[in-house]
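Honest question from a wet-lab person: if I give you the sequences of every part of a complex, can you actually get the arrangement of the whole thing, not just the pieces? Trying it with mine:
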Amino acid sequence: MLEVLHALLFSTLDAAPALVFAALGAVLSERAGVVSVGVEGMMRVGAFCAAVAALVMPTPLAILMGMLAGAALAAIHGFLTIRWRSDQVVSGIALNLVALAGGTFLLESLYGPNGTPPIQQLSRWDVPGLSSVPVLGALSGHSAATYLALALPFAFQFLLARTPLGLRLRAVGDKPHAVATLGLSVAGLRWGAVLGGGLLAGLGGAVLSTAVLDRFEQHTPAGLGFMALAAMVFGRWTPVGAFLAALFFAFGNALRIGLVSSAPGLLELIPQGMLLALPYVLTLTLLTLQGQRSSAPAALGTPYEQESR
Amino acid sequence: MPERLSGILPSVLSVLLALAVCWGLIALTLAPDTAANAYLQMLWGGIGNWPSYLEGAAATVLTRPLGESGMKAALLTLTGLSVAVAFKVGLFNIGAQGQMILGALAAALVGAHLSLPAVLHVPAALLAAALAGAAWAGLAALLKLYRGVHEVISTIMLNWVAVSLVDNWLVIGPLRGVAEGGQSITGTAEIQATAALPRLLGDVSRLNLGFLLALFLAVAVWVWLQRTRSGFETRAVGLGAEAARTAGIPVARRTGLAMALAGALAGLAGAVLVLGTERRYPGTLGAPYGFDGIAIALIGNNHPLGAAVAALFFGVLRAGGTRMQLLGVHQTFPELIQGLALLFVAGRMVWLALLRRRTAATPAPANAAPPTEAPRA
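Yes, you can. This is the full assembly:
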């Protein structure tokens, strides 16, 4: 029993970082009032660029390239929605479509249908003394991405809740006019949040192709960006909440994959499709129960116009 | 600049720019002359190979590509209409994909398991698909109206619920079809011949009644929005729910019905795919037609006829995409053109600012910013 739990925890922690980073990126952007439906596209671009870069440079540097690629896509989003006040959902969907088709085109014309050649995975670290402890030992033997994903949400939560910058970020998502009244730049704060969100989403994608897999595949990230949105909503737009939701979804996924290989009989009773639908059904249920008291930032999706009230 | 022109011009320029950028992309990644060749193949694959027809080839070099284009255009028109109708009432329907999945499944089931004469079977399957799509969209509308759940989030979630339940369970599980030999097949059981949408040109192309149905619905939606009371009220709600409520318009009912209509249109897209070409619910829908609908609606400036024109254009490109495969360009390449066009259309304000600078020499009208019917997300 302990061994099963150990294996489940291990694969959860192994696969979760991509989802955690993307969810944090979505939280950052949306808390500043900019909808981030484009997180799936940013992940895809990050995953692609990291996988291609890792062919010629050390993996950590390649991950940085993936992050920058995610931020580049976010910059287009920022240009359209902050500079030109375009619809934020339209821009995000457009970026998703471009990343989906563009990734397929580049992959096929450069490497053929089987994905990029395998790359050097991010190295794994053993926590001394921990690997022999039952269950807790699952914390050992992951890549740096996992440990970062375990620490970053709390740092981000501190930033958002306890620092002047965090207060400004939250304010710009709830009441941008108040921020402007204080003489701060609404556009500047939103630009920062959108670019930061792009870096995080790109990191999520990069981790997917350098730590979880060892290449970029045609369907990467296969809807993980939308699951990150679900985690963000489920975590009530807070970093730690989104982190816990992402861990929970990743655990559910590990459980499902574990069941497929070890207890296929159980899947006769509970079909895989139902398990796959569970994160989304849970998110919908939560939203239904919360109703109007939803914790979405008040000015989410509203372009900022100085003259409007 | 006249209002109508400022509605159309950004879309046209966006599509042209997207075509140019994608041309450059092929030229850079493959070879410069591949780009010209690939675009030519895409054109012949979409509108038929006229040069070889004029040189005496059989008429099928025209009818087959045109049939494929018409088929793709029908699907894009229907999902595009679905998104456009929701926009008109002020909602962003990202859920056309999920609604289409439900519609396709309903059509496949009614088509396979009911026995009716053809005059009844086709309408019954279409109706089932429309109802299934409407129900799935209605769920999002109910959540919006009674619980204040934003439709963008709820329709995204409903998409994935539909994909998970239908593609990953029903179609490979309880509803999986069985071939005559007894071995199971991909997708649901084949529909009966009476439920198939009749082919318009017989065996020479796959063009079917779905194409005419889509065009008819585009005109019908346009007439409804422009010429009827309920259509007017629907647009009024989209332009300002509070003002509409003050004017005595039943806002909740208009919102709910418009969203249900949007779902029904997406559901019909699923039916046209199943009854027209696939003849069963395949393993997956094959392309994200529901998301394409967002691009089609916005490139068509949220106008039902504009969406139909955009769908015809991209239907031709999408059908031609398969011919590009011969040159090492992936067949989904037209989707990249379409996505980029959407991105450029999203920058409508940029286009209008550029165009205004051009016409600045002439005295500008007092209200320089033309009213756009962008959705309030």
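Two things worth pointing out. The two ends of chain B are 27 Å apart (CA to CA). Strands of chain B lie at 176-178, 184-188.
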